[in-house]
Specification:
seven-stranded parallel beta sheet, 4 domains, about 700 residues, 18 helices, Rossmann fold, about 30% helix, single chain, GIY-YIG endonuclease, alpha/beta, six-stranded parallel beta sheet
Length: about 700
């Protein structure tokens, strides 16, 4: 009779009350410690697993327990802080802890085709090191800059902290937050600690990593993001696990980077929605970064020119320390001058307002660079027939097709931005036969074309998801912009954040009003942050910057605050509205989303869920019922995607604790429902409802 059983975490979308799945340890194997990687049989293959704990017995019948196939001896065990963070995330977001933790392990290492018991996984990385992001690169070294008084104050605050503390670094664009990050990392390394730096966008990862490498040429810097070649990403992760890389720069999943002895966590652009995962376990990396700092008893720095209202409220309540950097770091740099262009009255030239078109011409004559932002990719959002009103709709979704220029530039195609379905453009209207089909509105491709017609001598580039699909494409575009090979850069929000171009003096913004029309209660907060971010690209060096924003709503309060570049006034107004309406951060939300082939199936499941919730709230032993509010099931904003009906059920809690206690009891019953025809998930602290 075997005496040692292991609970092992596996990356599967199955819920386990205990967190892990039971396996028996063969008698000839020593019992591995928690955090150790093992190989276990799963279905007809093998999976990489992590030991959660050892136990003397199992509740399962002996014939249902499979044996551990092997231990990955060459890999150290995961740091206990990472295991604790994954367990917390699984509890808070009501997910499988194995899915939460092992989703952060590079797929190259976890695929069953890449390992066997006899052939250790790590051997696959031999000979790949020269191609990795850890190789010593010949980069120009950088020295610490002369600090501004506000930068000095922030670093002084960090030095004074001897244990866990969160600083909300509110610094205007160009205030030198990156220099603060670099000097804070240096302080952590001097103390023998490690450092974790998170960024929201893949495009920002390598830029920050390059600056870190230049400042610390003797250190291995691990870069973790999904656009890195599989072997390189695996090597970076393993070097971190083995303690060879003491600095990690990465996107959302890097919050679980296997750094030991952590001394500093930095979250750049902490307000960015990209930190919230929208598939699998719906974690929020910013919030988990704060928890990781708490577990590791180290400092956490949240940086932004436009902090999230949740973080701002935490600072106002004293839970975070507010650290201000109100001026630009460059000695002659000032904040750009922002102007509104009322498109109700302004003349139009090639799809641009006349003032913006004129400003672009002036910058071209001065040999200065410009950026034109529109947060809509493709050529046009709609293709329609003006004769009868027909619109090209996706057959799979409750959405219009977007018109895209084909990659060959010799034609057009229709693409659904929800399910990615593609379709050829009809030669005539399928309803009335009219051959004069009209694109309505404009996206980045059309804007690029119009700019080329307006300024034929200008060197124009576009940066959006379509133009950067190829690995290295975004890096090449940014390098061309930095070297002056581009006069005008147009694109989506990819160009709005974190980039520093000294010769960029003009920013134009198109189509911003569409976000104000959104029913999402966070719409104004997001638009203000987005516009402040894109405006901040202008005038970051000695030349003054100008920002021209096209709008049909110039009297909206948001634009008044934007003209004054007064984030504090905007945050105060929006928080008063949130408190009056009982919205986060003054309440806590969760949403259950269900999808099925029919509306009746999706709605029916949520109706059952609502009944179970009502029964739980009426239970005399339920202490949370006074603080919980249930809403009725309703279709999502886009009711159908990929031939799946989508419905949601919103739950509001008076506080996080009240909501979590209720969800824990409710989900135990909900998981017992038969849901073969319905896929559903729980989203705690949703960003979209």
């Amino acid at each position: 009779m075997h005496s040692c059983y292991l609970q092992i975490l596996v990356n599967v979308h199955l819920f386990s009350k205990e967190g892990g799945f039971d396996f028996v340890l063969p008698e000839n194997m020593a019992c591995p410690p928690p955090g150790k990687f093992v190989i276990v049989p799963w279905a007809r293959s093998w999976k990489l697993g992590v030991v959660l704990k050892a136990q003397p017995e199992s509740q399962l019948q002996a014939d249902r327990i499979r044996s551990v196939s092997g231990v990955v001896e060459d890999w150290p065990a995961l740091p206990q802080a990472v295991l604790k963070l994954a367990s917390f995330a699984a509890d808070y977001y009501h997910a499988n802890v194995g899915e939460v933790l092992l989703s952060s392990v590079p797929e190259f290492l976890s695929r069953s085709s890449n390992f066997s018991v006899k052939h250790n996984i790590a051997s696959y990385l031999k000979g790949k090191r020269k191609n990795t992001f850890l190789a010593q690169q010949q980069l120009p070294s950088s020295s610490p800059a002369v600090l501004t008084p506000s930068q000095t104050q922030v670093l002084s605050w960090l030095r004074q902290q001897q244990s866990f503390a969160v600083g909300l670094l509110w610094g205007v664009t160009g205030s030198g937050k990156t220099e603060v990050y670099l000097q804070a990392v240096a302080a952590a390394l001097t103390q023998g600690k490690t450092a974790l730096l998170l960024v929201p966008e893949i495009a920002l990862t390598e830029g920050l990593a390059a600056q870190v490498r230049a400042r610390f040429p003797q250190e291995q810097v691990a870069t973790m993001s999904s656009n890195i070649a599989p072997g390189a990403r695996a090597a970076a992760w393993l070097a971190t696990l083995k303690g060879q890389a003491r600095i990690v720069v990465g996107t959302r999943s890097a919050v679980f980077a296997p750094l030991d002895n952590l001394g500093l966590v930095i979250v750049d652009e902490e307000h960015d929605a990209s930190y919230k995962q929208q598939e699998g376990a719906r974690i929020h990396a910013r919030d988990l970064a704060v928890m990781r700092g708490r577990i590791s008893n180290c400092q956490v720095l949240l940086g932004s020119a436009t902090p999230s209202l949740e973080s701002w409220a935490n600072a106002q309540a004293g839970r975070y320390t507010l650290l201000r950097m109100p001026t630009r770091a460059h000695v002659n740099a000032v904040l750009p001058h922002i102007e509104l262009i009322n498109t109700k009255v302004a003349a139009s030239v090639q799809g641009l307002s006349e003032p913006l078109a004129h400003a672009l011409k002036i910058r071209l004559e001065r040999k200065e660079q410009s950026l034109v932002f529109i947060n809509r990719r493709g050529f046009a959002p709609v293709l329609c027939c003006e004769a009868c009103g027909w619109i090209a709709d996706c057959n799979n979704c409750s959405a219009h097709f977007a018109l895209h220029r084909a990659s060959t530039r010799k034609g057009y195609k229709l693409i659904c931005h929800h399910c990615s379905a593609q379709q050829a453009v009809a030669q005539a209207c399928p309803v009335c036969g009219n051959k004069d089909l009209l694109p309505k509105g404009q996206g980045t491709q059309k804007l690029e074309e119009k700019l080329a017609q307006l300024l034929p001598n200008a060197k124009i580039a576009r940066m959006d998801r379509d133009s950067t699909r190829r690995r290295g494409a975004s890096k090449a575009i940014l390098a061309a912009m930095e070297s002056g090979l581009i006069d005008i850069l147009t694109g989506t929000q990819m160009i709005a954040k974190g980039h520093d171009f000294e010769n960029l003096t003009l920013v134009g913004v198109l189509g911003s009003d569409s976000l104000l029309m959104s029913p999402d209660f966070r719409a104004e907060e997001r638009l203000f942050a987005l516009l402040m971010q894109v405006a901040g690209r202008a005038g970051r060096a000695e030349r003054p910057g100008q920002v021209l924003i096209e709008t049909r709503l110039p009297r909206h309060p948001l634009f008044r605050e934007l003209l004054a570049q007064d984030y504090e006034a905007s945050a105060k107004r929006l928080l008063v509205e949130r408190e009056n309406l009982g919205l986060p951060p003054y309440t806590s939300l969760a949403v259950i989303r269900a999808q099925a082939s029919s509306d009746s199936a999706a709605q029916g499941f949520l109706t059952q869920a609502q009944l179970l919730a009502s029964e739980e709230l009426q239970n005399p032993h339920c202490s949370t019922s006074p603080g919980i509010r249930l809403y009725h099931p309703r279709p999502m904003a886009v009711p159908r995607v990929a031939n799946q009906a989508r419905w949601q059920l919103l739950i509001e809690g008076r506080s996080r604790l009240v909501l979590q206690n209720f969800l824990q009891a409710w989900l135990l019953k909900l998981r017992e429902l038969k849901t073969a025809k319905v896929r559903w998930h729980m989203d705690v602290d949703p960003l979209e409802i």
